[in-house]
Write a structure and sequence with these properties.
The complex is a heterodimer. Chain A is an all-alpha fold. Chain A has eight helices and no strands. The chains are: A mainly alpha, B mainly alpha.
Chain lengths: 260, 184
């Protein structure tokens, strides 16, 4: 496989940028708050090293299988990050807010159906059936993740649930990346691979450059602390605790009034 | 270009525009909520006749929030409830503001006010749900049947919820309590 100078530059920038992000996540103690996001970035760093070693010392077939095996892991971890961010937003009291549970399931099901429909509609021209499978798989995951991000924003705004500062920053980066990735995967599906790989290659470079911009954004924003919560006086805290008991009892009363 | 490819491209363009527009629209709405202050939230409240809401609510509950079982309870008819409630616009608008108030509390007092704010948010969402049901019933010409079921229950929830908000403001020594009492 022939790699250009730009390929090596993107590889080195990705490795360094994500290694720096891992440092930020551990040093600033964000890793415990976002374990799946940390695992996603860690796997990217490990993937960069593994692919470099396989490219240098392995066979073309070994590179192919390593690349696509790790791509599946990457997609699963991205879905895990979506779940992790949703947990931060939709579980304000530790369990899923009851007014959004059904909407979450409905939107997830609808997003899967749309992503599956669009992947089925794609008809990439390739030389081998495996390439069709790969292109459609990438399109499916990119459509699904971008839909889930937009659905998550819409649902939280409609329900009036706030996002913590670092959740917003991770979501902004991954959300923008996923929408651009969807367009790039749609381009891969349209141009296919039957006439060569250069369009596929160029589009992939754009995708990597966009991801690098997101990594730089995460490095800068996750380094900074979130705005501090405001302090309540002891008296206010005691009164709020009493009010909480009152609210709980009133809610039970409301729930028991079936005959209205 | 095959018809299938044309359909695919059309679907991609449609989905890309839809996702981008939806993301921008909700992102801007969220930013507006993040920039809100107590004062700006209070200024958004519209005047609701609290005595009318209390009259509807106290038809079926007592002052402590318990259901009334005496012979003079639940005597209001649907037309009286509808007349007292004066349509749904004020209640619906204020529900949105109360959801934003809960958002504000969760954002700035996540450690202390989380439980109360979450309860307020859920109550406001429940009232909003009843209001949407009333709207649908009005469109279908079945408003009368729905009023006692939804409007009175919404009024009770609103009555209890606004009492919690007022208590929260009072306990927090927030200066805008007087303005809030006049509006909700």
């Amino acid at each position: 496989m022939h790699l250009t100078g730009l390929d090596f530059l993107l590889w080195a920038a990705g490795f360094l940028g994500q290694s720096a992000l891992l440092f930020v996540l551990w040093f600033r103690r964000r890793a415990s708050e976002f374990p799946l996001f940390t695992a996603f970035i860690s796997s990217n760093v490990a993937r960069a090293i593994a692919l470099y070693l396989v490219l240098r010392f392995g066979t073309r077939a070994a590179y192919f299988y390593t690349y696509w095996s790790l791509a599946i892991l990457d997609t699963l971890l991205q879905l895990g990050v979506v779940y992790e961010l949703a947990s931060h937003v939709f579980r304000p009291l530790g369990s899923w807010a009851k007014d959004v549970r059904s909407s979450c399931l409905w939107l997830a099901g609808f997003s899967i159906a749309v992503a599956a429909g669009l992947s089925w509609l794609a008809d990439p021209h390739t030389r081998f059936w495996l390439q069709v499978f790969m292109i459609r798989g990438n399109l499916f995951s990119s459509v699904l993740i971008s839909e889930l991000f937009v659905a998550m924003i819409a649902l939280s705004v409609g329900a009036g649930l706030p996002w913590k500062a670092h959740v917003v920053r991770i979501s902004q980066g991954l959300g923008i990346y996923s929408v651009i990735d969807f367009l790039i995967e749609a381009g891969h599906s349209y141009f296919g691979l039957s006439q060569g790989t250069w369009v596929y290659h160029e589009l992939s470079q754009i995708r990597i450059a966009v991801f690098l911009a997101c990594v730089a954004y995460w490095n800068a924003t996750l380094w900074r602390d979130a705005p501090p919560a405001r302090e309540m006086s002891d008296r206010m805290y005691r009164e709020l605790s009493a009010l909480n008991l009152l609210v709980g009892s009133q809610l039970q009363n409301l729930r028991s009034r079936r005959q209205w | 270009m095959s018809p299938r490819t044309i359909y695919f491209l059309a679907a991609v363009v449609f989905l890309a525009i839809f996702l981008t527009t939806a993301a921008l629209r909700y992102y801007l709405r969220a930013r507006k909520s993040y920039g809100a202050t107590w004062e700006s939230l209070l200024n958004r409240l519209t005047f609701v006749d609290r005595s009318a809401i209390a009259e509807i609510a106290l038809d079926v509950i007592d002052e402590s929030g318990q259901q009334r079982r005496d012979e003079n309870s639940a005597i209001l008819g649907s037309s009286e409830v509808w007349k007292l409630i004066g349509g749904w616009d004020g209640l619906e608008a204020n529900c949105t503001v109360l959801i934003d108030l809960a958002f504000y509390l969760q954002q700035w007092y996540p450690e202390n006010a989380l439980l109360v704010a979450e309860q307020l948010r859920l109550n406001a969402r429940e009232i909003d749900w009843h209001m949407q049901r009333l709207k649908s019933a009005a469109k279908a010409g079945k408003l009368e049947d729905c009023i006692l079921m939804n409007a009175q229950r919404a009024a009770v929830t609103y009555f209890l919820m606004t009492r919690k908000v007022l208590a929260l403001y009072e306990n927090s020594n927030l200066p805008a309590l007087g303005a809030l009492q006049q509006r909700v």
